[in-house]
Specification:
Helices cover 54% and strands 13% of the residues. It has 202 residues and is α/β, with parallel strands linked by helices. Strand 3 (114-119), helix 6 (125-136) and strand 4 (140-146) form a beta-alpha-beta unit. The protein starts with a helix and ends in an 8-residue tail after the last helix.
C-alpha cells in the first residue's frame, strides 16, 4: 500500500537524520561507556531506571549485563529499578510516584555503584529525584536523554542527549546507544574475566 510505503520511508529517513545529528554528541556516549566499564571493573553494580518505553530500555540493558550481549562471560551485576511492580506500587502508594526509584537507590546503592537512567524528556520527577539521590550518596550517574536534555542533564555526571523532538526516534537511538555500551563493556571485560577469547554466537 502506498500510504504504508511512505510511512516506512519517512520514518527511516527521520531516523537516519537523527543519527546524523547525534554524531556531535558521541563523545558523551563514549564517556558513558567508559564510566560503565570503570564501575564494573571496580566491582560496582549498575542500577537502571526509566518510565514507559524508557523502562523497557532500563530492563534491556540490565538483563544483557546479567546474561550476555554477544559474548560468553561471567554475569555482571545490574539491577533494574523498574522491574518489580510490587516495590513500585508500594512506594508510589505510600510515598508518591516521584520516589519510586530514589527510595530503591537509597536502600541498595553504595559508592562505587552507578545509576543509569533513560528519559526522552529529561523532566520526569522520579528520574530527577533518583539523580539527586545518587549525587547525595556519591553514586556516579549517566542519563540517556532527548530533546534538549531537560532538567536532568545537569544533574547527571554524564548526559547523552539525542537531539530530536520525536519520542520514537529518541528511544530508537537510546536502544542503539545501550547496545554500544554493552559492546564496550564486553570488549573491555570479557577476555580478562574469562581468561580466553570471547565465544561469539550468531
Amino acid at each position: 500500500m502506498k500510504g504504508i510505503e511512505s510511512i516506512v520511508r519517512a520514518s527511516a529517513e527521520e531516523l537516519e537524520e537523527t543519527l546524523h545529528l547525534a554524531q556531535e554528541s558521541f563523545p558523551a556516549l563514549e564517556r558513558a561507556a567508559a564510566l560503565c566499564v570503570q564501575s564494573l571493573e571496580r566491582g560496582g553494580t549498575i542500577f537502571t531506571a526509566g518510565n514507559g518505553g524508557s523502562a523497557a530500555d532500563a530492563l534491556h540493558i540490565a538483563e544483557e549485563l546479567l546474561g550476555r550481549y554477544r559474548s560468553d562471560r561471567p554475569p555482571l551485576p545490574a539491577v533494574s529499578l523498574a522491574a518489580d511492580p510490587t516495590t513500585l506500587t508500594c512506594i508510589a502508594n505510600d510515598f508518591g510516584f516521584s520516589e519510586v526509584f530514589s527510595r530503591q537507590l537509597a536502600a541498595l546503592a553504595r559508592p562505587g555503584d552507578l545509576f543509569l537512567c533513560f528519559s526522552t524528556s529529561g523532566a520526569s520527577a522520579n528520574i530527577l529525584s533518583a539523580l539527586r539521590m545518587a549525587k547525595s550518596r556519591s553514586i556516579r550517574s549517566i542519563a540517556f536523554l532527548g530533546k534538549d536534555g531537560g532538567p536532568a542533564a545537569p544533574e547527571a555526571d554524564v548526559a547523552w542527549i539525542v537531539p530530536s523532538r520525536s519520542t520514537a526516534r529518541i528511544q530508537e537511538l537510546h536502544t542503539w546507544g545501550l547496545h554500544v555500551v554493552l559492546e564496550c563493556v564486553e570488549t573491555a571485560l570479557g577476555k580478562t574475566a574469562l581468561g580466553k577469547p570471547e565465544l561469539n554466537r550468531p
